[in-house]
Automatic annotation (TrEMBL):
Protein origin, superkingdom: Archaea
Biological processes, Gene Ontology terms: amino acid catabolic process
Keyword vocabulary terms for this entry: Lyase
PANTHER family recorded: D-GALACTONATE DEHYDRATASE, D-GALACTONATE DEHYDRATASE-RELATED
Gene3D superfamilies: Enolase-like C-terminal domain (3.20.20.120), Enolase-like, N-terminal domain (3.30.390.10)
Pfam families cross-referenced by the UniProt entry: MR_MLE_C, MR_MLE_N
Protein name, per record: Mandelate racemase/muconate lactonizing protein
GO molecular function, one term: lyase activity
Length: 377
């Protein structure tokens, strides 16, 4: 079996005027990503996602990867991440190279699963897993004035029993947002907060001290991803669990987070971290040092499918049934047709559970007609 065709597919959707949303760093109006479609000589198709702009992905593929990937056996994909660090030697650690590696690797795993008739999470070594706990990623900062309680009430009405909200604009408003979310979710639900790296350490400490009474499962990206000394300072001055990883790429960056115990939870994004092969190495590094693993997801349905398969494969070490800590997957609740429309059967998080696809590969059927509607080019 060998790959005979590689196609880069940029996707984009623009939110209506006045409907921008985002985090403490600012608003955005575009949802965009890049899919990668691989096909083998026998007609098997695999899908991957590079969470990066289409033109950059296209150029990176053409310059560094196309000649290697076309003609490659999909079962050789696990060596691709390693080769990306050494050839091209000076570019391997960049986000765009790792995003392309991610897309190729995930597409290869999709093909491998289809070739042997098994879902990816079983190929990764995971036990049979039928469902995960989705958490609503919600309460974004919005361009349009909207009551902050409204999106959380919508999430609860959908059946979510866990949620993550955006904070990080000001410690005082952080406290108001967290208090509101906790009141609506209830005392027993899991609640996470995301500061998107918008604070200096002293500001993050002030915010965390104001919100720590609300029983937070984790505080995500309290300082910028490159500010490792800031994470170290927060470990010394606060006692809430910390999480990071969406803006880290490859096993070496995650190894620093794990080795120095800078976070309690690492969050690889399957469309940026190096793909399923690299994510499995990251999970092994984390579990060896007893650090939690929860994938980050701000992707299309293809990236979501990869994250679900990965999450279903992650070991629950060292927990037993006496320590209830279910694997959670992020489920963005902002409008995004790239998540809802491009699969023949979209993911459904309602009711508080998320089914893990049991079909071969990623277990999804991509609607190629819908793909054409959202092509960026």
């Amino acid at each position: 079996m060998e790959i005979t065709d590689l196609e880069v597919v940029g996707l984009s959707h623009t939110l209506p005027e006045g409907e921008g949303l985002g985090d403490a760093r600012g608003f955005g109006h575009d949802r965009s990503t890049t899919l990668l479609r691989l096909e083998t000589g026998d007609g098997t198709v695999g899908w991957g996602e590079a969470f990066a702009p289409g033109p950059i992905v296209e150029a990176t593929v053409d310059e560094l990867f196309r000649e290697t990937v076309v003609g490659m056996d999909p079962f050789d994909s696990e060596s691709l991440a390693t080769r990306s660090y050494t050839d091209p030697y000076h570019f391997g650690g960049s986000v765009f190279v790792q995003s392309v590696v991610s897309a190729v690797d995930v597409a290869c795993w999709d093909i491998r699963g289809k070739a042997v008739g098994r879902p990816v999470h079983r190929l990764l070594g995971g036990r049979e897993c039928e469902e995960l706990l989705p958490y609503a990623s919600t309460m974004y900062y919005t361009e349009r004035d909207r009551p902050i309680a409204e999106p959380m009430r919508e999430a609860v009405d959908e059946g979510f029993e866990a949620a993550k909200i955006k904070i990080g604009a000001d410690p005082e408003t952080d406290a108001e947002r967290v208090r509101t979310a906790r009141e609506i979710l209830g005392d027993d639900a899991r609640l996470m907060v995301d500061m998107n790296g918008n604070y200096r350490p002293d500001q993050a400490v002030r915010s965390i001290r104001k919100i720590s009474e609300y029983d937070l499962t984790w505080v995500e990206e309290p300082v910028p991803p490159e500010n490792l000394s800031g994470y170290r300072e927060l470990r010394e001055r606060t006692d809430v669990p910390l999480a990071a990883g969406e803006a880290h790429y490859g096993r070496f960056e995650f190894k620093r987070l794990v080795d120095d115990r800078l976070v309690d939870v690492v969050q690889p994004n399957l469309a940026r971290c190096g793909g399923l092969s690299e994510a499995r190495r990251i999970a092994d590094l984390a579990s060896t040092e007893n650090v939690g693993v929860r994938p980050h997801i701000w992707n299309s349905a293809v990236g979501l499918a990869a994250a679900v398969q990965f999450a279903a494969s992650v070991s629950d070490y060292p927990h037993t049934r006496n320590v209830p800590d279910p694997m959670m997957v992020e489920f963005d609740r902002s409008p995004n047709p790239l998540r809802e429309d491009i699969l023949e059967t979209p993911f459904d998080p309602s009711g508080g559970t998320l089914a893990v696809p049991q079909g071969p590969g990623l277990g999804i059927s991509v609607d190629e007609g819908a793909i054409e509607r959202y092509r960026a080019d």
